[in-house]
Amino acid sequence: xxxxxxxxxxxxxxxxxxxxxxxxxxxxxxxxxxxxxxxxxxxxxxxxxxxxxxxxxxxxxxxxxxxxxxxxxxxxxxxxxxxxxxxxxxxxxxxxxxxxxxxxxxxxxxxxxxxxxxxxxxxxxxxxxxxxxxxxxxxxxxxxxxxxxxxxxxxxxxxxxxxxxxxxxxxxxxxxxxxxxxxxxxxxxxxxxxxxxxxxxxxxxxxxxxxxxxxxxxxxxxxxxxxxxxxxxxxxxxxxxxxxxxxxxxxxxxxxxxxxxxxxxxxxxxxxxxxxxxxxxxxxxxxxxxxxxxxxxxxxxxxxxxxxxxxxxxxxxxxxxxxxxxxxxxxxxxxxxxxxxxxxxxxxxxxxxxxxxxxxxxxxxxxxxxxxxxxxxxxxxxxx
Length: 384
Fold this sequence. Notes:
Elements: H1 2-10, H2 12-17, E1 30-35, E2 41-51, E3 56-60, E4 65-68, E5 76-79, E6 84-90, E7 97-104, E8 109-114, E9 132-133, H3 137-144, H4 148-155, E10 160-161, E11 175-180, E12 186-192, E13 195-200, H5 212-218, E14 232-235, E15 238-241, H6 258-271, H7 278-290, H8 303-306, H9 309-317, E16 321-334, E17 339-344, E18 351-354, H10 355-358, E19 365-368, E20 377-378
Parallel strand pairs: 9-10, 18-20
Antiparallel strand pairs: 1-2, 2-16, 3-6, 3-19, 4-5, 6-7, 7-8, 8-11, 11-12, 12-13, 14-15, 16-17, 17-18
């Protein structure tokens, strides 16, 4: 055990990266909910990091057995009621797959997003009782529940602890979590100021810090936003006219910070054309998510160069580290039709997986995300 701890201390930031972290350099993710003309919901999210991780597309069937381990507690074991498709990353020590994104056969989606200010509740649970580690919320929610109302009810009775990602409790899991369901309901699960908070999310948008309630309060500063161009006005009897269209977006935050992306995500998800069909809605959502697609090099953060990851990451993972975050992948979920779409940085097109077809598969199966980089369209058969 001591040798493992020494290894984790030596390459701690890389181990954290393998759990979708890199808290020293941040993680810029955007999650939003878009609804078509009939109010049918579709979820989209981006994943940003300054390096590639060993992402896998993983299918978990109904009946699959999971376990979750929190320090000083017995394992919490649960069996999946619902099949789900997900993006996962293996824990470098246990090799267990940790769910970063997914959608289940009931039409509920889950997204894990960075939240550096995570501060979970103290461990007041009897040591003989099993508890859920927060890092396993993705597997637990997608496998057990059909909607966010059920998740909210279950969390009242299920202790959840924010566990350490490094030995000796060096760092707590720096995440918060957002879920959407086929009714269009959304919640955010956040561990802040020593409490677990489960918050209704009426706008369906989440990014990173500060806490969700701060983002909602900040929207009070944007009550003037509208998608209607005001292209003509008069000053001192002189008429001035904008010769182009698009002036309505001039007041949107321009930065890729968490605060700026939250406001833009609300704007685009609310004002994008309401599609008439499911296929049109997925297409519209893909265009919305393009506004949060970050190419490499768009912003440079010199702190990346100072990070231990810069030295250790290429040696351990074989992947380069960049001096900017970029969009590793974008995922779309059609919550009513139970379809999951994903596009990696090396792809122009999305590939999609149909859970209705995958339900015939009774075993868990994982495929590297990079396998689909040059493909397009339905690739469900790759699992079969």
